[in-house]
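Why predict the complex rather than its parts? Because the way molecules touch one another can change local conformation, and only a joint prediction can capture that. The input here totals 233 residues.
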Amino acid sequence: MQWALFNSEGLLFLLRWGHFIFGIAWIGMLWYFNFVQGPFFAKAEAGVKTAATKDLVPRALFYFRWGAMGTAITGWTIIIIRIMQGGVEVVNSSWGASILTGAVMGTVMWFNVWFVIWPRQKKVIASANGEKVDNLPALARRAFLASRTNTLLSIPLLFFMAAASHLSPNWDVTKVHMWLGVVVVLVGLLEANALLADKGPTTKPIEKVGGVIHMGLWFTVVFYVLAEVVLKK
Ligand code: HEM
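Output of the joint prediction:
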């Protein structure tokens, strides 16, 4: 059959389509939590907040966490299929450098969703339903910082995902592993700020909506400039 979808490229295309759908669901919900729900909750009356936490938040979190899962699974499946088709050389390329930069960020974000935000949000919901939960403010704060860090990372992530196929950098592909080391260290520092820092100047900029957007844009510039420097021919 000559239909475009019924071959291995078609399968890869379907995975890519799924990746966009899951990615939109995930990042859409992430931005909703950070840009819409958070500021609304900060002003809402206690009763309104409890009602929303019982019935609205769990629905939003469902699409949020499964969006994250679907995005990560489809993304990594595409990378594995690409390597199976073209060998490891596929990742030792400008495409590989860009996609793996986004993938490192996305995988840390996926970890934050499933192992930092969701377990703590379950307790916040349980508390709204009348269960006694110890240390609630500290739990909510950690989830908040992880969510803000994900919002920051979502901005450079989309830059590098899109750059992989739509920007043509003149990079030295023998240095991809070195570049990925830099990415892991920088993303690791941002993650440490979410998981270890509590108060203080390092968490301050990302606590405000404007601040997290600015930090996301600044880090996009930092990652891009570093990529051009480290991967220079
Ligand atoms: C878990 C981490 C992630 C991995 C492993 C991953 C992997 C990939 C891969 C392999 C591609 C290339 C597809 C191709 O053209 O063959 C891709 C593209 C893309 N990804 Fe991701 N991704 C991740 C997270 C995300 C997230 C969170 C978003 C947010 C919406 C996203 C949005 C995109 C977009 C828009 C493209 C299309 C780029 C283009 O073709 O112009 N990805 N991703």
